[in-house]
Structures are given as structure tokens and as C-alpha cells.
Amino acid sequence: MACVTLSKRHQWRPRVFPNLPRTSDRCPISTLRLFCSNQESSPAVDKSSDPSSELPSSGAQNVPEIPNPSNGAGNFASQRTPRGKHRNPEKIEDIICRMMANREWTTRLQNSIRGLVPQFDHSLVWNVLHGARNSEHALQFFRWVERAGLIEHDRETHLKIIEILGRASKLNHARCILLDMPKKGVDWDEDMFVLMIESYGKAGIVQEAVKIFNKMKELGVERSVKSYDTLFKVILRRGRYMMAKRYFNAMLNEGIEPTRHTYNIMLWGFFLSLRLETAKRFYEDMKSRGISPDVVTYNTMINGYNRFKLIDEAENLFTEMKGRNIEPTVISYTTMVKGYVSVERADDALSLFEEMKSFGIKPNAVTFTTLLPGLCEAEKMSEAQKVLKEMVERYISPKDNSIFLKLLSSQCKVGDLDAASDVLKAMIRLSIPTEAGHYGILIEKFCNAGVYDRAVKLLDKLIEKEIILRPQSSTEMEASAYNPMIQYLCDHGQTVKAEVFFRQLLKKGVQDPVAFNNLIRGHSKEGNPDSALEILKIMGRRGVSRDKDSYRLLIQSYLNKGEPADAKTALDSMLENGHLPESSLFRSVMENLYEDGRVQTASRVMKSMVEKGVRENMDLVAKILEALLIRGHVEEALGRIDLLMHSGCEANFDRLLSALCEKGKTIAALKLLDFCLERDCTIDFSSYDKVLDALLAAGKTLNAYSILCKIMEKGGVTDWSSCEDLIKSLNKEGNTKQADILSRMIKGGKEAIASGKGRKQAPVAS
After folding, report:
1. Which of 201, 272, 280, 665 is such that its CA lies 20 to 30 A from the CA of 165?
2. Residue 555 · residue 574 · CB < 8 Å
3. How far is 720 from 141, CA to CA, in rounded Å?
4. Distance between CA 65 and CA 56 in Å, rounded?
């Protein structure tokens, strides 16, 4: 095929040939030659319209040629022009630092670095040391390039490694490298020893710093005022003011004149050690040597006087500084403000703050941090609110976030809750992490003022952002804040929210019994006794005391929900924790269990009630005993009756025997009557007759004969009308011996009646 028809023009995608000339026509006729397999048959192209004609004479060979499709799509992609900005190539020192950070220091890594850098120079080594991720990498690299003979370190690389090791407190390594420098042909200078002295000072090793300083003289390294200034700063930071005085005198003996900076360090150190008189003498000595104080000197002296609350002397120096045309800095004003605040002169501090701004000196974070607590102490809360507003507008975060806690407490103390809320908003605007303690102050005051809706809104934010659970929190919410809030929520149908809130407090170790009991009350009132029981179990696991009223509400909630068995469980827990329920609560549980058909469970509640010495509810006790006997739980019923008797109460046996006989429970009646006879209980004759009649009617003649014999032995009956019928039944059933014995006993019983044997009387509880 010589060429491709124009019907296939949509297959041509010029974007894959970025070097081809483009025109406004998406498919110009001049490009059709590119689709021809025979180049000679292509028509000539006008050079004036071809951009490639502007190329040099050899441009004919540079015209892009359509690659063969059989070569693959990879050739097309390789011709695309990359988009976007070209990234700067990574520097060699950065590559080396990244390699050392990501790989272990081995021979393989060393070979990789050596292959990357054909030749090392001091600039490259210094840059690698500077960019090393940690001091260990820097030390390994420093030693390797030297031992491998790749470079000989000069003064700058030595100084850099000593700085790195000193900053990392690897002072022994730094000391060895410093002392070995002459062996490598590198001379010492003062800067290296100054660096070592500073490093020992930052690590708090004053003695070693002094040794290094003294060693300078031994090694022939000249000591200037720079070395002495560094030494003074190290030893005075640790309160060694006497040592500083000795070395100061030694410096003078060596003929080294102190500078203004020297005196500033000495004054700072003496005030730090609370040596007021010594500082004064050095200040006068400084002026006697013709060294005029600068702004740093005045700031140091003013701050020193403030330490001793000598605000008048500080004011004189501040006035003297301005009289000598030395412009006070923000540090000067802040130091004076701090002095006024320390002596409770908040008005003067505020005036100086305004003066400072009038001279165009902008307060910094330290200024605001110093002034605001002083205004709070003086209860100038309107001024404090204005200063806080200015701080927020300038977006200055204080150095000490505790001032917000002070502001919140002070605003709430004067009753300005809106201003207190603004303090919290200021913290949020300044991106200062709010803590549970901040919210707690506001919530407590809102609750005390009865503004519960605002307190709930704050609580919602507290719960939503889980501020309580933040590990970096330094202030926690007090019980006086969360207890009123939880109580309000539980009293207004929001116990679920209260529980979510309190569970966050639980994770912080709060185990407040008041909050626990409020939650139990709330769930109980809202008809969620299961949730209340779960709280109760948590209290048990954590050993938190449980309130009697909480148990009462929980039991009542279960009863209202129609779950008397769970109510009984809660009642048992109440008894186990040493709380004695009221008799009405015992009655409610027993009644609900009885009506629910749980007679045995009600019997156990009755047992607990009697054991606790509660004598009421005996009418309900009688019903429970009757139900036990009727259902066949005779032994359990007799045990409960025995417990009642030992507790000074006695059941109505005649009523129980009558009910059992009427319902045909003859065996239960027989056992109950036998129990009464054994304990000589008071029983009416009619009750005997009813039991005997019921046994005879049920055909249980031997049982009737047995109990009749016991009754007659006790002298209880002789005129039973059915005795003859029982004798006939015994003879009829072949029990002639028993019939004969019974006949004789009946005849002897009449004589017993004549003897007038009395009946024992026992009180019957109603």
C-alpha cells in the first residue's frame, strides 16, 4: 500500500512527536507525507513554510523520522519532553549524610561513599560533618576519612567536630581530638579551647571546664579576655562566685583588661548568686575604669535589684539610663514591669506598659506574660482583658501558658463569665492547647451561676475533642466542676452523656463516689437499670463506696421495669456492702417476686430481712410461707418458720394448717403439724381435727394414726369425732395392731382431759 487514505486521519496523534512542527490545522496536508512508506513519492515541501528550514545546513539529517511501529511504544515515550520544573540535583554531601543515616556503618558503606566521591576536599568534609543526622555519624566519618588517607583535617574540620561532639555531650571524644591536634600538624588556637569550656559548662561539669582553662597556659595557648569571659559564665552559672572573683583578680594580674561584656557577665552572676553588695562594688569598679554601662548593663542591674525587691533603686537606674540617652529596649521595659509586679504596683506596671508602646517599642511574649498575672493579682480585670485582647490581635503566644488559668480564675472570681469565656477563645485563637482544667473552671462557675446551657455547650466540646484524655495536659478538672455537671445531666434525662463524660475521667484515674452514685441515680430514674448495674459493678471492681440511696433507686427501677429478680440481685449487693434497706424496700421486692411467681426467691429475701432484724411485713411473710408449703417446698418453709421463731416471731400455724387442708396438701399439713408438736407450739383443737379429717379423707390412715398418737401423747385431743372411723379404716386395711393401740389411747385420753392439762400460749404475730 503506497499511502493511507484520508479516512484514517483520526489515527494520527501528533502529541507523541514533540519535535514535529505544529500549525493551527490539526491535520495539515503537508504532514501526509509522513504516512508514506516510499519517501521518494512524497511531494516536495515548501521550505519557507517549514520551521526546520531555519536549522543549519545539516538540518536535513536532523528532521525527525517516524519510527517503525514494530520497534515498540517505548521509543515514542522516550521522545516526550518532561513537564514541570527541573529539580536541582542533590548535593554530594547530602547524599552521603542520607546514606549514613539509612545504613549501618560498615566497610560496604565506606566503599559506596568512596565510589561516590573520587576526591575529598576540606569543604566537602566540613559540609558532611555539618549535615550529619547525629554526632555518631559525624565522628565515624571524621575518623574514617583521616584513617583511610582520603584527607588530612585542617583547623576548620577540627573545630566543627569539636562543636558537634560538645553539643552532644561527648566531651571525652572532643577532648581527645583537641589534644591530638599537634600530632597531625594542626596548631591550637583559643577558639577551640573556648568551645570546650562552653561545652563542659553546658554539661554542668565545672571542674573540667576549669581544668581545660588552666591547661591552656600549660600548652602555651594564649588566653585573652574571651577565654576569661567564657570561664566566668560557666562558673557563675553554677553559683561559684568566689571562684569567679579569684579568676577575675588573676586576669587583672596577667595584665588583661576587662571589657564591658566581662563586667556584664560578672554582674549577672553575682545577682544570680544573690550577692547584692558584691555586684554593687563591681558596678562601681566598672565605672571607675572608665567603662560606661550600656543597655545590657542597666538591664542586668535593674533585674538584680528586682530580685531584692529594691524597686526604687531600679527606677533610679532606669531614669539614669534614659538621662544618658541610652534607649531602653523591650527587655528594659519588661524588666521594670516585672519589678513593679513583684512589689504589687500594678498601676505603675500598666503605666510603663503604655509608655513603652507610646515610644514605638512593641511588647513581646515575656512582657505580656509578666504583666497579666500582676493585673490579676490586683483584680484589675478590665485592664487585663484589654491587654489580653491586644496580645491576641498581635498573635503573640505567652511564654507561660499558666497565665490563662490565672486569667480564667480571676475573671470568674469577679463574676465576669463572658470575659472568662473570652480567655478560652483567646487560647484557641493563639493555637494554645486547651486543657480540662481550663474548661473545668468555666463549667464550675456556669453551674454555680445556674447557666447550665452554656456549661453543657462547653462540655460537648470537651467530650467531642477528648480534651480530658490528652496526655500532655498539666491541669485536670476538679471534682467541684464535674460533679455538679454530672448531677445536672442525670437530673435532666441526659445520663448517657454524663456517663460518656465520666468514662473519660475514669481513664485519667478519677474514682469519685459522688459521680458514680449520680450516674446510678440517673440511669435508674430514666429506666435504664442495666446501665446503672454496670456502673455499680465498676464501682465494685475499683473499690469505690456505693450510696444507699443509689441502691434504692436501682432496685425501684428494676421493679418498675418488671424485673424483680434483678431487683433482688441489687438488693443482695446492697446488703453485702453493709447498707440496711428500709422495711418498705424489702416489702416491695418480696411483693413483686411473689406476684411474679418467684416464691422461693421471695423466701430468700424474707430470710435476709429477718436476719437483719426487720420485724415488719409479717402479713406478707405468712403469704410466702403458705405459698412455699402449697408448692411443696416444705423443708424450706419449715426452715423459714424456725428462723422466725428464733427471731422472736411466730407464724399463724392455725391459718397455715387450715389453708393446706382446704387445698388438699395433706402431707405438707402433716409435716407442719409434726413440726409444731415437736416444738410445743400453740395449736387450736380445730386445727388438729382439720388435719386428721383431711388425712382420713385422703385415705392416709397410717399417717393419721401416727399424728394422732403424737397429739394424744401431748394431751392435745380425745374427743375427735372420727376416731371410730379411723379405727374401722385401720382394721379394714389389716392394721389391727394400730387400731387396738389407738382404742386404748382414746380411753386413756379421757382421763388426761380430766387432769386439766393446760395449753402453752405463744404470741402469734399478725
Report:
1. 272
2. yes
3. 121
4. 18
- 64: which DSSP letter? -
Backbone phi and psi for residue 314, each to the nearest 5 degrees, phi listed first: -65, -40
Q: Quote the DSSP letter at residue 477.
A: -
Proportion of the chain above pLDDT 90, given as a percent: 55
Handedness of CA 266, 269, 271, 275 (dihedral sign): negative
**CA neighbours closer than 13 Å in the CB half-sphere of residue 329:** 10
Buried b (16+ CB within 10 A) or exposed e, 323-358: eeebebeebbbbbbbbbbbbbebbebbbebbeebee
* CA atoms of 528 and 566, how far apart (whole Å): 12
Residue with cell 406478707: 620
* Per-residue cell: 70: 514494530
Spatial distance between the Cα atoms of 487 and 573, rounded to a whole number of angstroms: 23
Q: What 3-state DSSP class applies to 463?
A: helix
Cell numbers placing 218: 600549660
Contact 538, 499 (CB under 8 A): no
* CA neighbor of 367 nearest in space, from 331, 324, 343, 339: 331
Instruction: Show the beta-strand stretches assigned E in 530-611.
Output: none
Beta strands (DSSP E) in 432-583 are: none
Query: What is the b/e burial string over 724-741, where b = at least 16 CB atoms within 10 angstroms of the residue's CB?
Result: ebbbebbeeeebeebbee
Higher pLDDT, 535 or 22: 535
E strand or H helix at 717: none
Alpha helices in 254-380 (DSSP H): 260-272, 276-288, 295-307, 311-323, 330-342, 346-358, 365-377
**How far is it, in rounded angstroms, from Cα 623 to Cα 586?**
15
Here the cell at position 605 is 429475701
CA angle 142, 148, 152 (to 5 degrees): 60
Asked if 647 and 640 count as a contact pair (C-beta separation under 8 A), the reply is: no
Query: What is the spatial distance between Cα 561 and Cα 570, in angstroms, rounded to a whole number?
Result: 14
| pLDDT given for residue 87 in this prediction | 64
Between the alpha carbon of residue 134 and those of residues 158, 203, 723, the distances in Å are 17, 18, 113
Q: Closest by alpha carbon to 447, among 433, 458, 436?
A: 458
Cα(744)–Cα(742) distance, rounded to whole angstroms? 5
Q: What is the DSSP string of 605-641?
A: HHHHHHHTT----HHHHHHHHHHHHHTT-HHHHHHHH
Residues whose CB falls within 8 Å of the CB of residue 267, separated by 6 or more in sequence, listed in order:
279, 282, 283, 297, 300, 301, 304
pLDDT in tens, 691-741: 877 887 777 778 777 777 777 776 665 555 667 677 777 777 777 777 777
Considering only CA atoms, give the Rg of the chain.
52
Which position has the grid cell 576519612? 145
The alpha carbon of residue 686 and the mean position of all alpha carbons in its chain are separated, in whole angstroms, by 76
Local structure of 719: helix, strand or coil: coil
Those residues with Cβ within 8 angstroms of residue 753's Cβ, 6 or more apart along the chain or in another chain: 715, 718, 719
Q: Write the DSSP assignment of 85-121 as a string of letters.
A: PPPPPPPHHHHHHHHHHHS---HHHHHHHHHH-SS--
Phi, psi (deg, nearest 5) at residue 577? -90, 15
Measured CA to CA, the distance from residue 391 to residue 427 in angstroms comes to: 11
pTM: 0.68
Residue 294 host element (H or E): none
Distance CA 364, CA 355 (A): 14
Dihedral angle at the C-alpha atoms of 547, 551, 554, 559, nearest 10 degrees?
-160
**What is the DSSP code string of 123-147?**
HHHHHHHHH-SSHHHHHHHHHHHHH
Residues 6+ apart with CB under 8 A from 324: 292
Secondary structure letter of residue 7 according to DSSP: G
Residues composing the chain: 766
3-state secondary structure 341-357: HHCCCHHHHHHHHHHHH
**What is the per-residue pLDDT across 17-51, written as a single tens digit (0 to 9) for each?**
344 333 344 444 343 333 333 444 333 334 333 43
